[in-house]
């Protein structure tokens, strides 16, 4: 059992980046992770062969983990990463993240920090799963993005497209998470690339395997014991159907015992219809979802073959050097782009007559429109598969269906029903 989150916890363990308007104690508990600080320092020291770790500083925390800067007596610096309790299946998430980083770094040649030491179990001196890695080189892009000239921002976006191209250059026969072959992860299959150079295929086949998906929604509550719905899967259709089958099985087994939504503080401020607590209504909607999947999956195999992707590719996870070249990617479509603005590639004829606030708004719209156009043009040329997926008529619907089907009971059934009505029309 995880330690209780004390009211006055050490900031190293305690989430300090925000507050919650509801259920704050529970939210903080899900992000509180105690560990033995001297032992994490020792793990970092040992990883680089230093004599002593002089200091540890928390340098970042997201929804699922915290990162610590470890400074050694010889000047070396490494980063230690500790997952939160809400990160998902701790063994699988840690083992898969390490393998994916190594795959991106050593196989695809992407600028990813090298993992120096790691443990996917909390049965170690640190008392928690951890990753020790090189410190990301360069400056965090989100700190300088708005101040960069438009030309440099366009150049960086083209570099992002090139990185995406390398991620997409290898495809696989299964859908799941990547692991090292020697990690002894249960339920793994040989990683069988269907595209890529022979050198890359040999590297992957000799070092990696594909196993159960590490995404936390497949492991929440009693779903952790439903290994038959955790992959790997052999096709996009099999994966999509499995999401619904997982929820149907869970609802049949456990739904009736969890009908009292009044106990869930997170639902006290949202409307709950009688259908939300009806297993039959959920099962019926999920059956319609399963019937719709074959009609929505693209028939072109290049559109559905599994490929790796960075799930959190935003400016906070990208670092650049002094020449504005991408120097590091951490935390494995770019969010530097603001798709909410009105598309405007040219200044209006009356621009000179506008006041300064109006001019600044127009300047922002034009710069964002140019960036979006630059990214989409480069993507269409270099990564046509992604361009096709972004513009496939059923692409957005498929993603929404999967998300809503996987959370209809835990969240709300209305989005799933609405999406199914859209499909029917």
UniProtKB/TrEMBL annotation:
Residue stretches making up the Aminoglycoside phosphotransferase domain: 56-333
Record InterPro entries: Aminoglycoside_PTrfase, Kinase-like_dom_sf, Mito_inheritance_9
GO molecular function, one term: transferase activity
Alphabetical UniProt keywords: Mitochondrion, Transferase, Transit peptide
Pfam family, one: APH
UniProt GO cellular component terms: mitochondrion
Main localization of the protein described in the UniProt heading: mitochondrion
Signal peptide (from-to): none
Superkingdom: Eukaryota
SUPFAM superfamilies in the record: Protein kinase-like (PK-like) (SSF56112)
Subcellular location: Mitochondrion
Family, per entry: Belongs to the AIM9 family.
Protein name in UniProt: Altered inheritance of mitochondria protein 9, mitochondrial
Species: Aaosphaeria arxii CBS 175.79
């Amino acid at each position: 059992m995880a330690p209780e989150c004390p009211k006055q916890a050490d900031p190293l363990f305690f989430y300090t980046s925000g507050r919650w308007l509801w259920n704050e104690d529970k939210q903080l508990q899900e992000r509180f992770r105690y560990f033995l600080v001297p032992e994490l320092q020792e793990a970092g020291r040992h990883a680089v062969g230093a004599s002593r770790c002089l200091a540890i500083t928390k340098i970042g925390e997201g929804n699922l983990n915290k990162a610590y800067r470890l400074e050694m007596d010889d000047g070396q610096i490494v980063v230690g990463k500790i997952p939160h309790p809400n990160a998902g299946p701790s063994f699988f998430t840690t083992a898969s993240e390490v393998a994916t980083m190594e795959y991106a770094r050593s196989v695809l040649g992407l600028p990813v920090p090298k993992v120096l030491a790691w443990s996917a179990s909390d049965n170690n001196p640190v008392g928690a799963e951890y990753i020790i890695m090189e410190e990301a080189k360069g400056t965090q892009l989100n700190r300088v993005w708005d101040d960069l000239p438009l030309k440099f921002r366009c150049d960086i976006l083209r570099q992002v497209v090139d990185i995406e191209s390398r991620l997409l250059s290898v495809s696989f026969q299964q859908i799941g998470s990547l692991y090292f072959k020697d990690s002894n992860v249960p339920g793994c299959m040989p990683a069988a690339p269907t595209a890529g150079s022979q050198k890359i295929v040999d590297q992957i086949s000799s070092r990696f395997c594909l196993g159960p998906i590490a995404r936390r929604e497949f492991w929440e509550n009693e779903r952790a014991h439903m290994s038959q719905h955790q992959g790997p899967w052999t096709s996009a259709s099999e994966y999509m159907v499995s999401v619904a089958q997982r929820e149907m099985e869970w609802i049949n087994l456990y739904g009736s015992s969890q009908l009292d939504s009044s106990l869930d503080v997170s639902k006290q401020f949202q409307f709950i219809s009688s259908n939300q607590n009806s297993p039959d209504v959920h099962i019926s909607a999920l059956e319609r979802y399963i019937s719709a999947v074959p009609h929505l999956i693209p028939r072109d195999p290049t559109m559905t073959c599994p490929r790796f992707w960075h799930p959190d590719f935003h400016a906070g996870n990208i670092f650049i050097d002094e020449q504005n070249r991408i120097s590091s990617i951490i935390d494995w479509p770019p969010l530097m782009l603001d798709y909410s603005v009105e598309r405007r590639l040219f200044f209006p004829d009356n621009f000179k007559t506008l006041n300064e606030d109006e001019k600044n708004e127009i300047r922002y719209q034009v710069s964002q429109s140019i960036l979006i156009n630059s990214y989409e043009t480069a993507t269409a040329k270099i990564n046509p598969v992604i361009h096709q997926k972004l513009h496939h008529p059923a692409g957005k619907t498929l993603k929404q269906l999967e998300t809503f089907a996987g959370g209809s009971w835990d969240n709300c059934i209305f989005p799933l029903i609405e999406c199914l009505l859209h499909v029917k029309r």
